[in-house]
Amino acid sequence: MADGAGTILRETLRIRLRALGFDAVRFARAEPAFGDGLNAWLSDGNQADMTWLERGAAKRGDPALVLPGVRTIIMLGVNYGMADKPAEATPRWARYAQYSDYHDTIAAALVEAGAVLEEVGGIGPADHRHYVDTGPVLERGWAARAGLGFTGKNAMLISREFGNWLFLACVLTRLDLPPDAPLPGKPPEATGTHAGQLCGKCTRCIDACPTKAFTAPGVIDARLCVSYQTIENKGIIPRELRAGIGNRIYGCDTCLEVCPWNRFAQASREILVTARPEIARLSLAEVLELTPASFAVIFKKTAVKRVKLAGLLRNACIVAGNIGASECVEALAELAATGVPLVRAHAVWALARLGQRERLQALFSAETDSAVLAEYAAENLCAGADMSARAVIS
What we know:
With 394 residues, the chain is α+β, with helices and mostly antiparallel strands. Helix content is 39%, strand content 10%.
């Protein structure tokens, strides 16, 4: 496509896509661009048990393996900044969890975006493909390549217009459109290995990480990350990481919140996302008393539903133990007695933090699950007991 006609088409698309509710619309040339950074990150085991990252590694490095004949990647950003800084409430929820699930709301707009491409660009349905955080695409790398922002030392996409608060989505298309330029600085890298060209000497995000999950600027070990442990990890949270979770019940925004670039952040227009302020108003006691029915109602159409009730109760137990929530002792005792093993194990830990040793010793006699018994053993609450007939602590 001739440069002039391509530029006109690109700018027409930019206007039309912004009208759908996307706050940022940028274009990048689709070509293998990120070197071996992702494979190096994976080989170090930083992905924990997120095996889908390994399975899709080749496609993430070459968009032509996702859409043969792809020429352009359209990077889209949706601002989820808040008018006011979230209150320092307990429990604390990641900011994005206080909105309707962006996977659902943005996906609907991406379908409309595809229709716009077909109308304006004269292509067919097979000539484009879209994703919102669900496909084998390195969204942050392509966003940096398109100049939507830059990869910071916190490994996040940082926008000079919206700070750290952007949901990213993309459309791969066979349309050949002129690319936007990246921001000045080093070439953007997929994993953040050479990140921080616009961070200068600032290391606030690295210094503030409560579990020291950064192994280098822009490189996160998911195994140490609060967001991974409270969302992606479906099992027992390692004991050595629990104190660092603090009062964070779902995700962690610390490395985003401390970033100085947030001085440019703006409140969301809420065209493609809807605020759910009732989530942040939940008390810890209310969370610990959730039932399957109430969980389904309160967290319907939110990202929180991903962890399921057991995962959320697990996280709430850790928060209760960390903050010394004595008002939650009865709820914790109920969970330690009747919850599923995942929840019982963390309720035992929380009750031990709250000094409820006598209550735990009474509960111990009925326990048979090895993971829960391991928590009792770690707290020296089963000394002298013969557990061989019930379970073996590994």
